[in-house]
Write a structure and sequence with these properties.
By secondary structure, this protein is α/β, with parallel strands linked by helices. It has one domain: Rossmann fold, CATH 3.40.50. It contains 5 helices and 7 strands. Strand 4, helix 4 and strand 5 form a beta-alpha-beta unit. The two termini are 21 Å apart.
Amino acid sequence: MKLDLMTYDDFEELLNGPRGYYYEGRWEYFNKVLNIIKAEKINSAVELGPGLLPIIKNSDIILNPEEDFFGKPEYAKGEILKFDATNKNWPIKDKEYDLFIALQVWEHLDNKQSRAFREAMRISKTIILSFPYLWDGGEEKHSHRAHRDIDRDLIIDWAMGIEPTKIIEIKRTGKEFSKGPRLICFWKF
C-alpha cells in the first residue's frame, strides 16, 4: 500500500474547520509522528480514534461503536472497524498491520490500557502512541481528568513494562490545559 500521509495543507483544513480550536498546536506532534512513519517500512496501518482525519489517510480505522465527541473522518479510504478497544480479543488477525497508531487516545481507555496494548502488540509490528505528559490542573472539566498526571512510569505500566524503542517529548504548545506537553512513544517488535 502506498501511504497517503497527512500533509500540512490537510492540517490547515482541520484548523479552518468546525473543530479547528481542537487541532491548534497539534502539528508539532503530528509532524514528529509523520517523520517516524516515513523512516519505517510501513505497508499497512490501523489508527484508533483518529478524530476528523487519520494521520495516514488510507489506513484502516478503529472506531468505538458509540458516538465520539471528537468526531470521525468524514470519508475513509481504508476499512472502518467498529468495536470497543477496551475489550479483549479485537476482531483482527495476528500481525495483520505493520503499524498501530493512537494519538491522544490511550488515556481514555478506562484503566484497560494494558489490555489494549497487548492487543495492539498482537495485531501489529510497530506501535505509535502519544500521550498528554505531566499535565496537571484541568479540574474545571470532568473530561480533563483522564489527561492528568501521566508520566513515563504510568506509560510503561500501560505498556506491560515494555520500554519504547523511541520517545519524543513535545513542549507545551499553548497556555490552555489541552495544549500541554506531550510524549510520543514508538515500539518496534
